């Protein structure tokens, strides 16, 4: 097989990149290790910044988003039993965010791809990316499961959109990149509950007992999270204990949390990771293959979209003009945005979580920061701008 851009991974980043390249007339092929059913079931966060929602609309994937997405014009920060609403449009020139599950984004993009887009191969497990330093990289992949047939894809460039444990990362030679990692000393216990959300907007609590988040999956399903120690097992938390703790941490005025059956329960660690540069020869990394952010600021999916919008522009410019100037600047252009998102995600994480071993002084400093970002200050405006995100198109 031959193509111009070989895309590894059919997550939202790889699928959006394929859609953008197809619309620009740049040939590409998408290789995905898993089958379609598995890919469309993968559960991930789904808060879209205004820029991400606009990109999906621009590439033809906005119909269901506009029908079913939950538009949020603000969110609440809660601490000391008080609720402080952050109004996004008034502080960001009209921008909003939309809750739309990542699984649905993927379904929409797959449907468009299979309708008439470039080739999308499920069950194509990439085993190696070779000659990334040369003029024609080679992607080796296997189809048909264990013991299947090995095939090759020759391309001009490779886009690694296959996550932090994928073949793209493994293809990087030792010493070719710097990897910056920060692991946080706490985790999130997350539940999906069969109960309508108790609020129309996200609630983020910075309680002395630890962080809590009230979110929603649909108008009938709630997603909620609690800060827990890193060695926590979901079995340590019976349903009643979870609801009791959420009640304590999210409490504000007369507001009440509605309870319901817990459908799923899991614990996830929090970490930050950045790879510099995000390009090695003709292999360009995007999304989780290049960086990971803690979920406190919901930047992961939006950063991935920013990467592939930047990458698509670079490939389109090269395809039309022959100039590699934008490809050469791809990593630098992305990393400025990536580090800004890392900074904001780190700030939100430390702002709202209780650090192990924190004392009264630490809590007083945390409350002071919370009051600054919820008052009429430049810090409040900066928080809203970073939360809403910058335009992508």
Automatic annotation (TrEMBL):
SUPFAM superfamilies registered for this protein in UniProt = FAD-linked reductases, C-terminal domain (SSF54373), FAD/NAD(P)-binding domain (SSF51905)
> One Pfam family, short name please?
FAD_binding_3
Q: Does the keyword Thylakoid apply?
A: no
User: Record's Gene3D superfamilies?
Assistant: D-Amino Acid Oxidase, subunit A, domain 2, FAD/NAD(P)-binding domain
**Which keywords, in A-to-Z order, does the entry hold?**
NAD, Oxidoreductase
- What residue stretches are annotated with the FAD-binding domain? 2-342
Out of the domains of life, which is the source? Bacteria
Does this UniProt record's set of keywords contain Transport?
Answer: no
Q: What is this protein called?
A: 4-hydroxybenzoate 3-monooxygenase
């Amino acid at each position: 097989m031959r193509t111009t851009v070989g895309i590894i991974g059919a997550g939202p980043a790889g699928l959006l990149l394929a859609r953008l390249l197809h619309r620009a007339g740049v040939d590409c092929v998408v290789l995905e290790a898993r089958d379609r059913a598995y890919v469309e079931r993968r559960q991930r966060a789904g808060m879209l910044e205004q820029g991400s929602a606009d990109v999906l609309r621009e590439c033809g994937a906005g119909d269901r988003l506009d029908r079913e997405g939950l538009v949020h014009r603000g969110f609440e920060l809660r601490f000391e039993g008080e609720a402080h609403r952050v109004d996004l449009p008034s502080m960001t020139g009209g921008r909003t965010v939309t809750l739309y599950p990542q699984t649905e984004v993927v379904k929409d993009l797959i449907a468009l791809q299979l309708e008439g887009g470039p080739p999308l191969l499920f069950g194509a497990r990439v085993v190696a990316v070779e000659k990334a330093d040369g003029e024609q990289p080679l992607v080796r992949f296997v189809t048909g499961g264990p013991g299947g047939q090995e095939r090759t894809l020759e391309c001009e460039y490779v886009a690694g959109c296959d996550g932090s444990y994928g073949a793209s990362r493994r293809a990087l030679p030792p010493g070719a990149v710097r990897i910056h990692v920060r692991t946080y000393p706490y985790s999130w216990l997350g539940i999906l509950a069969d109960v309508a959300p108790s609020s129309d907007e996200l609630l983020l609590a910075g309680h002395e007992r630890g962080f809590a988040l009230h979110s929603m999956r649909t108008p009938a399903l709630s997603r909620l999270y609690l800060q827990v120690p890193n060695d926590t097992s979901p079995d340590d938390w019976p349903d009643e204990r979870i609801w009791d703790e959420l009640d304590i941490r999210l409490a504000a005025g007369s507001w009440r949390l509605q309870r319901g059956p817990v459908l799923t329960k899991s614990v996830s660690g929090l970490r930050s990771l950045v790879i510099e540069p995000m390009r090695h020869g003709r292999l360009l990394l995007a999304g989780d293959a290049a960086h990971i952010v803690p979920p406190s600021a919901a930047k992961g999916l939006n950063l991935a979209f920013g990467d592939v919008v930047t990458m698509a522009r670079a490939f389109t410019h090269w395809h039309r003009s022959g100039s590699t100037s934008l490809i050469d600047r791809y990593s630098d252009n992305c990393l400025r945005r990536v580090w800004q998102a890392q900074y904001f995600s780190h700030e939100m994480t430390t702002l709202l979580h209780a650090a192990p071993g924190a004392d009264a002084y630490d809590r007083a400093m945390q409350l002071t920061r919370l009051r600054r970002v919820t008052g009429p200050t430049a810090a409040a405006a900066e928080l809203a701008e970073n939360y809403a995100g910058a335009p992508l198109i």
